[in-house]
Backbone:
């Protein structure tokens, strides 16, 4: 079983709809992240959470919200989806200790907004 | 905002050739990580470099961190089709060690 699981893997929806992407992890990590990946733009940080009570905006948080329901669960919501939010979304986790901890990524959610 | 510039953006070579991918910034990073991403999957860590001038080897891959900790390179010797993928560098900064990712280098190794 994957250590970082994202659901759904693919989603097609219409402009204006509310969408939730979910992420769960079995690694026991405190830190969780949401990124979006667009061709030619690399990975950009949307939100990150260093523990259940700590939520921080990343570089592109407008139009998104998150919820850290438990240490193992971190969901990303698009309250009213728009076409330029079409992208590949990744959840990642990392351990708390140390400055050089790697991030462990899920396999992504491909989101298309029509 | 700290930026990491990766070059080249695309690279298509024949099996057996050598290649180098560069990751450059005007900012100093506390550490730099290299990831590889295959289609349909998330990025997977290859290596972390921490000390200025550090060189790490992973089989046919050699990673170097610049003396000033502002740049890094990835050199692949005798590339194989299995090396095909998107290579991403990511720099860690600040007390919270957030990562800033480069835009990636898409490598295709043709048999």
Residues:
């Amino acid at each position: 079983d994957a250590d970082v699981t994202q659901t759904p893997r693919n989603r097609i929806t219409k402009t204006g709809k509310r969408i939730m992407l979910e992420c769960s992890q079995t690694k026991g990590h405190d830190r969780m992240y949401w990124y979006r990946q667009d061709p030619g733009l690399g990975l950009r940080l949307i939100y990150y959470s260093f523990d259940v009570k700590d939520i921080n905006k990343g570089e592109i948080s407008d139009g998104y919200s998150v919820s850290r329901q438990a240490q193992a669960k971190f969901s990303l919501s698009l309250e009213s989806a728009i076409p330029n939010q079409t992208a590949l979304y990744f959840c990642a986790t990392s351990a708390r200790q140390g400055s050089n901890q790697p991030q462990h990524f899920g396999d992504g959610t491909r989101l298309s907004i029509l | 905002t700290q930026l990491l510039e990766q070059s080249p953006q695309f690279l298509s070579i024949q099996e057996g050739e050598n290649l180098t991918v560069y990751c450059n910034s005007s900012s100093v990073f506390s550490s730099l990580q290299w990831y590889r991403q295959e289609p349909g999957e998330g990025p997977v860590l290859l290596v972390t470099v921490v000390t200025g001038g550090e060189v790490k080897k992973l089989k046919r891959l050699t990673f170097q961190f610049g003396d000033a900790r502002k740049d890094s390179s990835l050199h692949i010797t005798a590339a194989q089709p299995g090396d095909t993928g998107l290579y991403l560098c990511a720099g860690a900064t600040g007390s919270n060690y957030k990562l800033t990712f480069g835009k990636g280098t898409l490598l295709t190794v043709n048999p």
